[in-house]
Amino acid sequence: MDIVSTWAPAADNNDPAKYARDVAGWMGVSPTAALNLSDPNTMAMLMQSMARKEGYSNWNSPLAQQAAGAQVNQQNTYNIYGGNAQEIGQEVSRRQLDANARVLRNNQTGAG
Description:
The chain is 55% helix and 0% strand. The chain is mostly helical. Helix 2 (16-27) crosses helix 3 (40-53) and helix 3 (40-53) packs across helix 4 (62-68). This is Bacteriophage protein.
């Protein structure tokens, strides 16, 4: 229900409880079930069920399975010497944000 409340909030004239019931029904789970979103099959089922709820009929695309299984495995090593703990923390944060931006930029496909 947390996912649905974020995706289709009541403030936008949605009925999150009905949305959750519909999506859960198509997935074959309870609307209150805890979903393992690290499992590509679960994520693909969620994506396809939400697409169906959004009006895409019985959308079933191999791209959903592919997208659901996509992972970014990133390991960074930063060598920072000296300084105080706060400055070091800020420097690590800055470097990590830069690294994340590069990964995102390198993995984007052109729109259209």
